[in-house]
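Hi Y.,

Following your request, here is the sequence exactly as I used it, all 118 residues.
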Amino acid sequence: QVQLVESGGGLVQAGGSLRLSCAASGSRLSINTMGWYRQAPGKQRELVATITSGGSTRYADSVKGRFTISRDNAKNTVDLQMNSLKPEDTAVYYCYAFSTFPLTRAYWGQGTQVTASS
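Below is the corresponding structure, written out as tokens. Let me know if you'd prefer a different format.
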């Protein structure tokens, strides 16, 4: 069973920075894509950023130039550095991983709250 454990959320003033981290646990894992999604109250969950095992990245237009995703394939960890945070970035952020071994499926973390106050 794969578990995703997130850390690093919190409260910050607008313009500030936070770093989210996520670690995937499980034996002999093969994870293709890892990333972050977010869900604000009353809104659908949306993509923030993803990164493949080969290092290809994808960002939501709203975070380009402010957020940076990085990954350690050997440790199955993914980080999200968030700079110049805005109140509209306030949401619960979920870690995401798409595994190809031992099972082909997606996994989600429990979510971590990020609040950027104005």
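The chain has a mean pLDDT of 95.

Thanks again,
Q.
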